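Deliverable D4.2, example record:
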Amino acid sequence: MSVETETTEENLSPIEAIYTGECQSLSGQSSLTYAIGRHPEDQTLHLRIVANTGGGMFCDEWASGSAIDALVQSSAVLISRSMCELHAGRSINTGGFVLSILKHLGLVRVNAENSRHHEMVPGTTFEQVALEAMGQSASGDKRKTLKLKKGEV
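Output generated by the structure prediction step:
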């Protein structure tokens, strides 16, 4: 079984995938694979959908972290359709899939008053949550804190 995607000329993209992750779709009916990429010249982070186990179409183009932040910060209420602005004119599924990934990463959360609405997690940016997913801090510090058991030095 092959998954159909709306593809552009990916070979022309200078963005390099630096991390791949998986999460459930908002409906929980499929698993999504996504990639976080870095532009080699300006070092900006980007997001794209790589695969969907549900077989539905989606746009596999990169969305810039700055565009994601601008969209998320400008809307008090986020729904699947809100995310379609990142890939205008592409598969309608893409918006819901992007929202699922952003929820998984911790950039957005379900609105306490309406489970169909999402909102930005205050004080977060795409770069912060992407770096956390990759095990790094936003400052580039790659050290991890070790938790020692009682009695260990």
